[in-house]
Design goal:
By secondary structure, the protein is α+β, with helices and mostly antiparallel strands. The protein is built from nine helices and 22 strands. The strands form five sheets. Strands 1, 4, 5, 6, 7, 8, 9, 10, 13 and 22 form a ten-stranded mixed β-sheet that branches. The chain has a six-stranded mixed β-sheet with strand order 14-15-16-17-20-21, with helices on one face. It has a two-stranded antiparallel ribbon with strand order 2-3.
């Protein structure tokens, strides 16, 4: 069977309860789109899809109701596990989207709080890793600053998966049943005024993170952590790629004006320039009377092809991560070897 594969297969799941059989172990809804795109001819030989890790990208509509948000995210995570994913990505503000800065601060929690404990238990129950794309974190300086961090949290399953893919670094700390293996606090805060979209002042309630974090070894590959607005700064993605990232992830809550104009273009650009997979879980729909998000979660391969995407509404999409293809592409197109820091400086210098 291996020699008969001609395409990379990725697919979309709109909602867990509208499913039909595609092949054994993989179910998608009847109205889903199956994306099968051919590769450059010189790179047509690649691993069987059954040998490639499967990742799930979850699209949700968060509200100020934290428990309702958890139920919605947990349903998608459980469906991702049932479909065979080893890692599920949740978007920025998966925990909640508040109506104003005061409500944001009131609803925030420390990393060791009850909500992340529920997600850690969910990761263990499902036997997969979780990328929690943007948690409203009360940090160690909460008492002094009365501001929070937008914190990307990576949880392992603390089970068979984490034993097989043991990290070279010690875990940061444990949350009940699972372990936090990495945290990244958003370094670029979104303080913008977009006509037709309304002003956003993330810095009113949020502190910028102090540093980037090294890519983390996961069952899907080396993952570099970022959040939403970070995608507008290619230096960050280049630094992560030069530090060993194979997958860049940009969990987001893009607006309705910037989304159609910039979302896909930026994600594809980051994938092409770094020769990484790019995984972008997104918020979608109307969160409350003051805010709505664009959606269109997607996975982009190192060639810049969108290999999986969500459409409208909550749901998830799935994609195989072919690291053999990534390495072959980097060998055929060795852009990192061709850089000229003597002429324009070392953009995105290694971490």
């Amino acid at each position: 069977m291996r020699g008969r594969w001609k395409y990379r297969l990725s697919f979309l799941v709109r909602a867990p309860h509208h499913l039909s059989l595609l092949w054994p172990g993989l179910r998608i809804p009847q109205r889903s789109v199956l994306c099968a795109r051919s590769r450059p001819r010189a790179m047509a030989n690649f691993s069987s899809s059954w040998e490639m890790p499967l990742v799930a990208v979850c699209q949700v509509t968060s509200t100020p109701d934290k428990q309702q948000n958890f139920k919605a995210c947990a349903e998608l995570v459980r469906e991702a596990a049932r479909l065979g994913a080893c890692l599920a990505f949740l978007p920025e503000a998966f925990d909640f989207i508040a109506r104003d800065p005061a409500e944001t601060l009131h609803l925030s929690e420390p990393l060791g709080g009850a909500l992340l404990g529920e997600y850690a238990q969910l990761a263990r129950e499902c036997g997969l890793w979780l990328s929690l794309g943007g948690f409203h974190e009360r940090g160690h300086d909460w008492e002094q600053t009365q501001k929070i961090y937008n914190c990307h949290v990576l949880l392992d399953s603390e089970g068979e998966t984490s034993q097989r893919f043991r990290l070279p670094l010690a875990k940061l700390f444990c949350l009940n049943e699972g372990s936090v293996v990495a945290t990244y606090r958003k370094t670029h805060l979104c303080d913008v005024e977009i006509p037709g979209q309304g002003p956003m002042r993330e810095s009113n309630s949020t502190m910028p993170g102090p540093r980037l974090e090294l890519p983390v070894r996961t069952p899907a590959g080396q993952v570099g952590l970022a959040i939403c607005y970070d995608m507008r700064f290619p230096e960050l993605s280049l630094a992560l790629a030069q530090a060993g990232a194979e997958i860049l992830t940009y969990p987001s809550a893009f607006g309705s004006v910037t989304g159609p104009a910039h979302w896909e273009v930026l994600l594809r650009a980051r994938a092409i320039e770094t020769q990484c997979y790019v995984v972008a879980a997104a918020q979608c729909g109307r969160h409350h009377e003051k805010r709505a998000s664009y959606g269109h979660s997607m996975v982009v391969d190192p060639w810049g092809t969108v290999v999986a995407r969500c459409s409208e509404g909550p749901g998830l999409c799935l994609a195989r991560i072919d690291l053999g293809y990534l390495r072959q592409l980097r060998q055929h197109l060795p852009v990192f070897q061709h850089r000229r820091p003597d002429l324009y400086g070392n953009l995105g210098r290694p971490l």
